[in-house]
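Before the break, one more example. Copy the sequence into your notebook; we will annotate it together after we see the structure.
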Amino acid sequence: MSNQQFTGQNMIFYFAPTVFQSVGLKNNYDLLATGVVGLVKMFSSAFGIFLPDRFGRRPIMISGTTIMVVAFL
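Here is what the structure looks like once it is written out:
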């Protein structure tokens, strides 16, 4: 099972046009918005590939955990 299936990302891309239509986007803007979501995912994946090479995994994990704890509080 891939990470995308485990986190539900495939479902988000499958239903994204329907969700965007339900919030009021019309005239194929729902498909454009879905494309923008895909581009954001592509660029953040590329960012995530190069980030560990530059800073190492441990500092990224510690800072991510700290940010999550603060956000949950």
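The radius of gyration is 16 Å. The CA atoms of residues 27 and 67 lie 39 Å apart. Try to locate both features in your own notes.
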